[in-house]
Amino acid sequence: MRFVSLRLATCVLATSAMLLIATAPSQAQTRAETLRYVTGASVNTLDPNIPGSTRESFALSMSTYDRLVSFGRKQLNGKWVFDLDTITGELAESYEVSSDGLKLTFHLRKDAKFQDGSPVTAEDVKWSLDRCVTAPILGKAQLLTGSLTSADQFKVVDPLTIEVTLPKPDKLALPNLATVYPMIINSKVAKEHATADDPWATAWLKEHTAGSGAYVVESFKPGEQVIIKRNEDWNRGSPNKPAFFKRVIVQSVPEPATRANLVERGDADLVLDLQASDVQSLEAKGKLKVISTPQYNAITFVSMNNQIPPFDNVNVRRAIAYALPYDDMFKAALFGRGSPLFGATWADGKPANGIYPFQQPVKLDLDKAREYLKAAGLPEGFSTTFSFNVGQASTAEPMAALVKESLGKIGIKVDIQKLPDAQMSTQINEKKLPFYTEGIVAWLPSTDYFYRNFYTGNQRWNYSSINNPDLAAIAQEARFEPDKAKYEEAGRKLNAMHFDLMPQIMLWQPNQDAVMAPSIEGYTYEFHRQVDYRDVSRK
Amino acid sequence: MTTGLGATMVRAGRRLLSSLPALFGVLVFTFLLMRVLPGDPAVFFASGPNAGKEEIELIRKQMGLDKSVPEQLVFYLSDIGHGNLGRSMMTGQPVLKDLRERLPASLELTFTALLIALIAAVPLGVIAALRPGSAVDHGVRLFCALGVCVPTFVSGLLLIYVFYYLLGLAPDPTGRIDVFTSLPPQRTGFLSIDFLLAGDVEGWWAACKQLILPAVSMALFVIAPLARITRASMLVSLGSDFVRTARSVGLSWRKVVVTYALRNAILPVITIAGIVFSTMLGANVLVEKVFSWPGVASYALDALLSSDYAPVQGFVLLMASLFVLVNLVVDICYGIADPRVSIE
């Protein structure tokens, strides 16, 4: 009996050893052609338009769907970043903008096919754009920022030509068509799955794709992983060549230390969301490639509610601006990994240019802070709370401690409040937080866009709740200003007002630290702040 | 024996019925608790760069939050009656589907951890009880104390550091199976069983390798209560009259310790094992996070942080039901371990 089981065991062992040897070479080969990307977040829908979709879902849709146009890329301090000013065709072979800027004409590629083999037609484009501005989905609010609001604006000229008309010459109309939402869907397939309640097939597209993109979804496990395989017919990146990787695995690994281990051991190829401390130690070891790009379309703030006393007093806000220990905060929160937005010197007391965000001439100066407090009629200081959300605790917690300590020196007593993410966003939306730290991001970072969306109106993204009609008017006017010099002038004015009113304090633009295997090339910082899997390749 | 078993079954059935009101209470309580928590999920989920009031209203309507709380409760209860636990905003999937996919992962991990813990704890407890006050006893005590003192995520991270990062013995700690291994056809949901059923030994070994580290780090934490209770109960049992008699009539050491002493000492261990199992299932969230294990606990935690009501409610209901089930199983085990329990 014993002899038999032993033989059986040997047999099993031998077979599995043979299996191992047999599969080893082919596995090694597919591994090189596979990109394994690990992330702390997860993909929760295949249609990025669904309310509640995550950033990973945005990134995935860039590879599974095409848009009419896409952003080019440029080098910024030696690193590749997306370029808002170069817009190239994706599904459109070419496009023209009329001289008055009111008409955009797109000529579609003749060879473009959806993943099911049917050709991409102007009808599909129209249906997709109509969906974006009509259906109750996220695309609506985005396209609004480019004056695209109604289905009447999209006209099919012939099967390969589509025309977009604008009510005003909006500079952001074209860039908007390159963002995540206005993806081109196979309308024949989608219509088959539309219902009377759901004419735009949102329910079906959430779980299925019907696009023409570089990758086809192979398996989708929400919250765990998505595996996509290459669409061999896709040639929108470079002529006659599909994307580099045959397969891409997008895997959720919630623990940042584990993500760092994975990429260091070479089991994962690429990761974006490591802790700053891990990035620093990995960079010091020098075995991996670390590409740190300042997120030039994102900003971290210390915000004050301009409607709640004592922050309704401009001198209180100025006092805070001179009482923050910027350098220590920058080191403690980010290990200095980012671009500071403090400590500038304005020689003539005027902003150097009209670009937002900009470095403000503020630094830690407690005497000046005390003077401002005295001017505000609060020489003894006051008590307040400083809030941040749990999701940002790793950077915000050390920062909050430093804020508390420093403000304590000028008599401002700060209670630190750590709020669950949902609670924090609710309170911001209801304008109940007096003093807190938050971040913003804009897909299309232009000066007027920032000021219009983040400094005007009684809405959630106006963190400081500033209500200044002059500022709003200048920003609104700048939106449609065709003259570059005048636009620049408006930007300078807005920046000067920002420093004077100090509605909130810009701290820095954190780096996006992409850590990757040395063999990975082509990584580009994209507007959606995730990896575009079509950019990367292996040497 | 049949009457004994029958009596156990009747008793179990009665227990099951009497637990239904408790389950209902849990249902309503969780529902209300989630609504009382500050934080509006609609605002949280509408966090695209341009999400404004309209998007928030849209999500609120989608989640059914535009209705009054009593109305929501009625809808929720009727949904539950139809076997619908709602939809998760986080994963975009029906909660029932999510739980069905994730529960086997949690169960597999918890069962394995409990098995490892029992295999380690019972002999440790017995050895300690046989030589109370000796160096062995102190050694076991120290080991148990260490196991309890080190939180599971610390032991998990340490195990990963040593066995994956330094030695390279363990596979990468990312979930139940290596991403490059193809999955067996799903039958039980327990990967280790499914691979065996599919006859895929290599896959089975791959799944087991993934399972070992998280199971051990969880087991370390629960060895202590199990070993301590075994020791205490063995001490009582070894000091009792029947063991003295058995020894005096010259029965073998093995027969005295295993058949007479341990059999009588095992009841409290079963009770504790039941409790430990239920706690582990809900509390292994840290281990699940560290090992990227796609289980129910980490799912519920993520949902809670983002105020995603449906998954949290579904999770609590699931846990309550499991608790009822585990208690039933413990009851039945009692009957088998000590037939006297069946007689009421």
TrEMBL record, chain A:
Keyword Signal recorded: yes
Pfam family for this entry, one: SBP_bac_5
InterPro entries (UniProt xref): Peptide/Ni-bd, SBP_5, SBP_5_dom
Signal peptide: 1-28
Keyword Signal belongs to the record: yes
PANTHER family named among the record's database cross-references: PERIPLASMIC BINDING COMPONENT OF ABC TRANSPORTER, PERIPLASMIC OLIGOPEPTIDE-BINDING PROTEIN-RELATED
Family: Belongs to the bacterial solute-binding protein 5 family.
Name listed for the protein in its UniProt record: ABC transporter substrate-binding protein
Originating species: Bradyrhizobium campsiandrae
From TrEMBL, chain B:
Main location: membrane
Subcellular location: Cell membrane
Membrane topology listed for this record: Multi-pass membrane protein
Highest taxon above the source species: Bacteria
Keyword list, A-Z: Cell membrane, Membrane, Transmembrane, Transmembrane helix, Transport
Family matches, as Pfam families: BPD_transp_1, BPD_transp_1_N
Keyword Heme annotated: no
InterPro entries, sorted: BPD_transp_1_N (IPR045621), MetI-like (IPR000515), MetI-like_sf (IPR035906)
Transmembrane segments: 16-37, 109-130, 142-167, 204-227, 265-287, 315-337
Segments forming domain ABC transmembrane type-1: 103-334
Family the UniProt entry places it in: Belongs to the binding-protein-dependent transport system permease family.
Name this polypeptide is given: ABC transporter permease
The organism's taxonomic lineage, starting at the top: Bacteria, Pseudomonadati, Pseudomonadota, Alphaproteobacteria, Hyphomicrobiales
